[in-house]
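Anyone else keep sequences and structure tokens together like this?

Example one:
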Amino acid sequence: MTPAIRATGDPVEFKATVFPFLQRDPVLNTALLSNVDGRIQGIMHDPEPPLFVSLHDGDEVVGAVVSTALRGIILGALADDLVPPLVDVLAELVPGADSVEGTPSAARLFAELFAARVGKSFQEIRGLRLHQLITFAEQKAAGTPRLAKETDLEVAAELFRGYSAELGHDSTGATAHEWLRRRIGLERVWLWEDSERVVSLVGQNATIFGATRVGPVYTPPKYRGHGYASALTAHVTQQIRATGSEACLFTDLANPTSNKIYHQIGYRPVADFVGFSFQL
């Protein structure tokens, strides 16, 4: 099948086109759904306009892809056979894209074809595993959880900058403050406090089609080893469950500790995703 491919810079138009397709599996498609929803809500911004691409077989949507300056090309769970025609289009529209992320086979195929088309090399930069909560087990730690408030902005921004730095992302003070201010206002940032010290941060994304993704999760190195992140993630997960939503999250495959922690809470693997970067 050679799909028809449509591109737009309008997230509202893209949502109307692809969300009925993506909502068939809101957990598997959580990254794409929250990415588009965040831009419509005005809580995600890019230094350059994003590109939204839909793939069609006749009247049926068969794939959805987002390309942004900060996140690169996000393939989601795009089928392997749709990759070559997509590369033909994106090599023309976004030849300067710096990365791609998707299922292991689709992402590697895209990286190989795209790099050859635009005259770049590529290398694997990350492996992620998507998990969904199946059972739930509460986790204990000294201290208590609470929603972040506007007055927590400075300490929360410090934690967020630490999180970004560990991922290799550039997060200036202004970026961290803006990201957090909007999400604190939406009650999507949680803190764990022990002995009047904020020791861990956990965020949650919007609930879309009955699925809510937990993240980011971060504890500064000096506070690790006390179960703070585990207890706070479990608490946030419990709040999500109370609304009747499915809870999900991503883990770094290179971090066995985090994978173990989430398994103890009751999360189980759904799918793996791989990221590749492009270089001249």
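And example two:
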Amino acid sequence: MSHDHNHNHNHTAAGTTLMLAMLLTLGFAAVEAGVGIWAGSLALVADAGHMVNDAAALALAAGAAWLARRPPSLRHSYGLGRAEFIAALINSLGLLALVVWLVVTAIARLQTPQAVMGEAVSITAAIGLAINLLVAWLLARGEKNLNTRAAMLHVMGDLLGSVAALLSGLVITFTGWTPIDPLLSLLIGALILFSSLRLLREVLHGLMEGAPFSVDPQEVGKALAALPGVASVHDLHIWSVKSEEPLLSAHLVVRDASQWESVLQASHVMLIERFDIHHATLQPESMTRTVQWRDVPKCDHDHC
């Protein structure tokens, strides 16, 4: 019960942190967008657009954190932890859409250069950088899971956007070279693309109920088979409903069925201590039963 209580407390704290980060991000995005349009800076407008995207991502993450701490029900016996994967998927797709917009707009700006007010861009970008550092600090102190990692990727990408906008403003102020603005926007787009594709791969892996990357199924199987009283292991499945909570089910062939209780207890202790798997469903099978099942002839189309 203590594990569940602490986990719910962590999700509550994560939701509060994400909501605060969202309000900070959205508030400054409006300021940055206005100054970017007035100053003619694509890097600043791109950073503002990224911040709006961040705010949506953080709102999704906060909603997912709230859903994840809802208790299980008859209809959803594992709870609603999968909402974290769905929110992370939407966030990663949002990042990809932002990259496309950045590339298209930057290419158009390179073909048709526009005047940029470097001083206004620099000051606004510096304030944006401070806001992003504060948001990143808030997220770094909170719970670590796929959902908060997705939100952190948004914020780190936005932080880089603020750096790019700051550099753009400084270069234009001191040299007047305006192509630096769209060029830095393209660089930030490439960095965001790399991070978002990596996140998307992990999200899709989780939604397809793949084994978490932090757990090696082969090592888990070997560890179970090595326990005293266990002859072999089969039908081993490892997946996760929440990104930080792997689940396991397996059939253990035991040498002596009367020792199953001690084998079961040893299995759970080992899974928790070595692999941090707290939810495992283990089914015993006797060696005699397994041999008899294998000796049954296979059925053909007409006879069995």
